[in-house]
Structures are given as C-alpha cells and as structure tokens.
Design a protein that fits this description.
six-stranded antiparallel sheet; single chain; mainly beta
C-alpha cells in the first residue's frame, strides 16, 4: 500500500474573530492523501482526514463518500472487537455503482479493504486535518481494534505516543497488514520496563493497524495535534 500526501493551509479559508480582549485566529488545514490499494489483495486502511469538515458536511466520513468509483465486487469490512472477528463485508456493486451498505469512517477508524479490480486502485481521502483534542479510538480491555492515525502524519509507531497522545500499557501490541502475505505482521509490543516499543514499525498515512489493549481497563486514545 503506497501513499501520497498533500496538505495546503491556503486551501480552506482561515477565519478571524475579534473580541474585546483579543483577536482569535483559527486556521484549518485541508489536503488529500492518495492511498494505493493492490489488485486482488486485502489492505488495512484508515481515514486520515476529516471529510465532514468539522461536522459541516453531512455524511462526509461515510464510506459512500470516501470510496467512490472503485472496482466492482470490492469489499470493506470493519473489525468487531466484541466478537474478535470481522463483520460481514459490504460490497461495491458494479451494476448500481454504489455500496450495498454504509458505515462511518471518521479519522482514526480502520477497515479491511479488498480490491477486486484487475489493477491497483487509488483512493483519495480529502478533508481537513483533525486538530485539538479528539478521541481517535476507545479500545476495550483485552480486545483488538482496527484503527489508524487520525491525522496524515507518516512515521514510526512511536510517533503515536510521542506526538499523537496514545498512552500504551504493558503488553499492548500493534501489527500492520501485509497484503502480499495476506496476513498481519509480527506484532510490536509495548515494554513497560523500557517505556518503549520493542521494535520499529513504519505507519504510512491512510494505513490501518491492529491494536491490542492488554490493560485491565479501556484505553481511550485522545489525540491533541496542532499543525505548526
């Protein structure tokens, strides 16, 4: 799975508001992320941008908006943490040019995509960068969840905790999906002793990953990202 990212601060107008005490400047950064999904393979994807533009575009983060014009009989499936299995996949109908169902994929939510096309499919996520306090995921105790970075910040797994507010517990694991091998990679584990992951794991914008919460309590991942 390959990605291309373009962010543009000027693409969305910034607003100025004044008060008696001070002027307040609000900057929204928008852009797009191209994610290449390999032909006849599964890939874990996650939405890296807010296509609802802060809730002003109804259904902006629905899959019917995020994944348009894809190959017939391609599928999307969410991971059901309670069942420890995937929900029944939703299929893209070539006849109607629409998905047979719908669900929301706000920034940070992941899903397993199967590209049924004879060629690689490029999906373009368009929206604004999620800034400020934002709940990227809430992972129940001793369960897996398919998630992703809520912002288009490529880098190592460690960036999730050093830059995006993830607080791992001892024994938590993260794995990426290897499309060529049709399986998840060997998990990387959080060591409480060293306060670090046991290895590196490059996570591209738009890539989904499988997170296991080894804690006795739920892990609510609150990101607080600001574009500098």
């Amino acid at each position: 799975m390959r990605t291309k990212v373009l962010l543009c601060a000027a693409a969305l107008a910034a607003s100025l508001a004044s008060s008696v005490a001070q002027n307040v400047y609000s900057l929204n950064v928008v852009g797009y992320v191209n994610v290449t999904l390999p032909s006849h393979q599964f890939a874990a994807v996650a939405n890296p941008l807010d296509a609802s533009l802060g809730g002003t575009v109804a259904g902006g983060n629905d899959i019917t908006n995020l994944f348009q014009g894809v190959a017939a009989s391609s599928t999307l499936a969410t991971f059901n943490s309670a069942l420890n299995d995937y929900d029944t996949p939703i299929t893209f109908s070539g006849k109607s040019g629409a998905w047979t169902g719908n669900f929301s994929m706000p920034p940070g939510k992941g899903a397993l995509y199967f590209n049924n096309g004879a060629a690689d499919t490029v999906v373009t996520f368009v929206g604004q960068v999620q800034q400020g306090a934002y709940t990227a995921a809430s992972i129940a105790s001793h369960t897996f969840q398919l998630a992703g970075s809520p912002v288009p910040l490529g880098g190592d797994l460690s960036d999730l905790n050093t830059k995006l507010g993830l607080v791992p517990s001892a024994g938590d694991t993260v794995a990426l999906f290897n499309s060529a091998a049709n399986d998840w990679t060997t998990p990387v584990t959080w060591s409480a002793k060293s306060s670090a992951w046991t290895g590196t794991l490059p996570i591209a914008p738009g890539a989904g990953f499988l997170y296991f919460n080894n804690s006795a309590s739920a892990n609510t991942w609150v990101s607080n990202f600001t574009v500098q």
